Each structure stands twice: as C-alpha cells, then as structure tokens.
Sequence to fold (250 residues):
Amino acid sequence: MDFDETLRLIKDAKRLGLKSVKFLGASEPFQNERFFEFLRELKKLDVTLLVFTKGHVIGDDAEARKWNSQYGISTGKELVEEITKVNASIMLGFNSFDLCTQDEMVGGMEGYSLKRNRAPELLAEAGLNKHNPSRLCLAVLPVTCGNYSEILEIYEWARVRNISVIACPTMVSGKGSNEGAWQKITPQASALIDLYAEIYEFNLEKGIQTIEQLEEKEFHIMPRQRAATKSPVGGTSRFQVKSCGVPATT
Fold:
C-alpha cells in the first residue's frame, strides 16, 4: 500500500469514527523520508498520534539530518520540535540502563545506547513529559531474564519524571515471535508476579494509584518490606551508565 492509498484509508476511517493512529513495528519510522509528511496530514484530520521509536535517530544529529533534511531538520532537537508540532506522543524503546545489555537487545547495534540515552533528554526538554497524561512513554519490551533485575528501577526512574512505562514479557516480534526462543529468555511467572507486585507497591507509595483502583482491577498485594530485586537467573543488574539527565518532577 503506497502513501496515497494509506492516507485515503485513514480518511475513510476518520469518517467512520477513527480517533487515533499508532505507529508500531520492527522498522524505525523516523528513517522513513515521508513520515513527517504523513504525520502532518493526520494532524490536519485531528487524529491523535502515537509513535514507537528506538530513539537512535532522535539522539543522533547525523541520522536525524540524513533522513529528515527535506523538512529543514538538521539535528535531533529540531526533529523533536517537529514531533511537538504534529502533537505526536512518543513510545521510546528502553530495555536497559546497561550499555552492553541494551546494545545486545537491539541486535548488537554498537553505540546505540548512547544515542538512545539522548532521546528522552531531548523529548523531556521539549516538554512531552509535562502533559497529563504524559506524552512520553518508555516501552520496556520485552522483559527478559537479561533485564529483569533492572525493570523496577527503570520504572521508578521514569514515573518520578512523569514518564509512563509499559513493561511486559510478551512481544510478538523479533525474538518474541518464536515460542521456543521466547521461553528461553522469559522469566518465570513467579518472578514476574513479584516484580509487578513491587511496581504496584511503588504506585501506592507515590500516590500514582490508590488501593481502591487496584481493588477494582481485582489485584491483591500483600504489604511487605521491599528487598533488592534479584535476577531470576542469578546475579544483579550491571549499571555502567545511569541513563539520561532528565530531572525528576516535583
């Protein structure tokens, strides 16, 4: 389906009640030279936009310029300015604080993490995390045995900065599309239950959620003293770089 056909389909869907469009997938949308052209057309239709990105194009001025110079973009900051102009929300791939772990989880792309780390800084400087609800989200997908011990800290780091977080073990793409491979990398159910219980405890402590809201969802969390999160395969998280100079909200 080409550009015009896709846009025509969106316009037809808008007449039928379409409210939002989410851009997801294995490819990087900001490496599509007509992507902003498409986003501008959707903004004219008053369609809410959500874009999943790995962040490396935003965090690398050369990449931002290479793919988007036709829009007058020469830096990652200017790319983010264009994102704000079309009122897009960003779901940023974020698997680990650890450089080696993160590079490995995106297919061994050396140097990716440093570029990714710059992306949330630029997006926060542009104010995407100052909205309610936040227009900036970290996609910690998938949760694996390799990054399990970091998930709680990533979650806490993001939420105190009003950045939303999605963290789940299932992901029907990449390694997650093969059931055998998925079983090898996925933590045990008991470990995941412990992780999400700690997340809900944090939400209660910070007032992000109330116990009534959790009860409506039929969750049951036993109060307990929080312990250091352990990896389901042994060892602890290796924090070589504490990612991103994004200040916490007050």
